[in-house]
Amino acid sequence: MKIYLDYAASTPVDERVLSKMLPYFTEQYGNPSSVHWYGQQAEAAVEQARSLVASLLNARADEVVFTSCGTESDNLALRGVAWAQRKRRGANHILISPVEHHAVLHTAQQLAEQGFEIEYLPVDESGMVDPDDVRSAIRPGTALVSAIYANNEIGTINPVGEIGKACREAGVPFHTDAVQAAAHLKMDVDADNVDLLSIGAHKFYGPKGVGALYVRQGTPIEAAQAGGKQENGLRAGTHNVPYIVGLAEAFRLAQSTLQERAQHHSALRDYLLGNVLENIPRARVTGHPSRRLPNHASFVFDNVDGNQLLMMLDIAGYACSSGSACKTGSPQPSEVLTAIGLARHWALGSLRVTTGRDSTPELIEQFSQVLAELIGRIRAASQ
Ligand SMILES: *Cc1c(COP(=O)(O)O)cnc(C)c1O
Do 207 and 264 belong to one domain? Predict the structure, then answer.
């Protein structure tokens, strides 16, 4: 039997989402940019999806840009605002947290090669950004601040509203990567003082390969790819109509079931966090103990090879992660775990367990037993 405990890496497409998508592959296949009836039908579907996504973010429809994934949304936010700010104001200083997803971290590194100055905000040992640090790091040449909403690797939820407030007061655009957060937390771009916000459908039971970027009206931004005039000129390329329809429906379902899911998941999470600390020696929880995603448990184990642990768990039937799907297989400790101050012999033994709609208490109980046993075995073998 295979047990999936890696819902932060991806989720299955909900049947209700799939059935909304299907007609747009075969019957309503027009290009939304065409003038004829087929095009109009497709355009109506895209605009309906846009209004729905906007209402779920507490935004206006013309502030939603559809993209090909969460990664592209992050790229567009950083590149688009950085370039526009440099052109218009000569601003070239970018503030980001050091615990961002690679989609933000590596984009910032490329911008550094183009002459932007990237400054990393401090984070505490749970990976949290202090809004006062943002306030004091902002200067006249600051083009953009980017801080992750909820961390994919260690689950910590940032005080996004307060960070946004600090940026708003200084008149600096604020981007947040909400690709994990949008699956579990209420999104409200006004309450959170956010100017740009990234989401991706496959983290909330929608299809892979589609995302959206919220861009507050008036935010300086330019396109990151050239071509047609789609999406207000911000994202050239023919709309992926079925996937856009799927993203909107999946987001609606996610946002309308936040409370019951959070209750279900946080009970499993807290059981697992407690059980591991109680039964496995030299184990630590990474990320914030309580201000964390409801379905997210993450650990480090001293002197345990994390990749070996993942492989042994896989053989035992459990699909987990070391924190980020993009990093699996790498012998380097993750930047996130290094940024929160973990020594290498801890950071290399990391494990992320994220629950989903099929996870039950019995399953998590079995999993904790298997985990304790495997870690005991790995440690005994390396004595
Ligand atoms: C998954 C993820 C991304 C990338 O989204 P894709 O749609 O897979 O490209 C970006 N940021 C965070 C926090 C994520 O969890």
Answer: no
Length of the chain: 383
Whole-number Å distance between alpha carbons of 147 and 149: 6
Q: Examine the domain organization and report whether 75 and 216 are in the same domain.
A: yes
Nearest alpha-carbon partner for 190 in 214, 170, 213, 171: 214
The CATH number assigned to the domain holding 353 equals 3.90.1150.10
Phi, psi angles (nearest 5°) of residue 113: -65, -25
69 lines ligand 1 (CB under 6 A): yes
CA 102 / ligand 1 centre spacing (Å) = 9
CA of 43 from ligand 1 middle (Å) equals 27
Pocket test for ligand 1, best of 72, 73, 152, 153 (most atoms within 8 A of CB): 152
Query: Are 223 and 236 contacting, i.e. CB atoms less than 8 angstroms apart?
Result: yes
- The pTM (predicted TM-score) of the whole model is 0.97
- The Cα 29–Cα 132 span in angstroms is 50
Can you tell me the distance from the alpha carbon of 285 to that of 373, in angstroms, rounded to the nearest whole number? 18
Task: Return the best residue to mutate from 180, 199, 352 for the ligand 1 pocket (most ligand atoms within 8 A of CB).
Answer: 180
352 lines ligand 1 (CB under 6 A): no
Q: Tell me, what CATH number does 194's domain have?
A: 3.40.640.10
Main-chain dihedrals φ then ψ at residue 152, nearest 5 degrees: -70, -30
H or E stretch covering 144: strand 142-146
Compute the half-sphere exposure of residue 336: CA atoms within 13 Å on the CB side of its CA.
30
Measure the CA–CA gap between 361 and 355, rounded to whole angstroms. Answer: 10
Please give the residue range of the domain that contains residue 170: 15-256
* In a shared domain, residues 208 and 263: no
Q: What is the pLDDT along the chain (383 residues), one digit of tens a residue?
A: 899 999 999 999 999 999 999 999 999 999 999 999 999 999 999 999 999 999 999 999 999 999 999 999 999 999 999 999 999 999 999 999 999 999 999 999 999 999 999 999 999 999 999 999 999 999 999 999 999 999 999 999 999 999 999 999 999 999 999 999 999 999 999 999 999 999 999 999 999 999 999 999 999 999 999 999 999 999 999 999 999 999 999 999 999 999 999 999 999 999 999 999 999 999 999 999 999 999 999 999 999 999 999 999 999 999 999 865 444 555 688 999 999 999 999 999 999 999 999 999 999 999 999 999 999 999 999 87
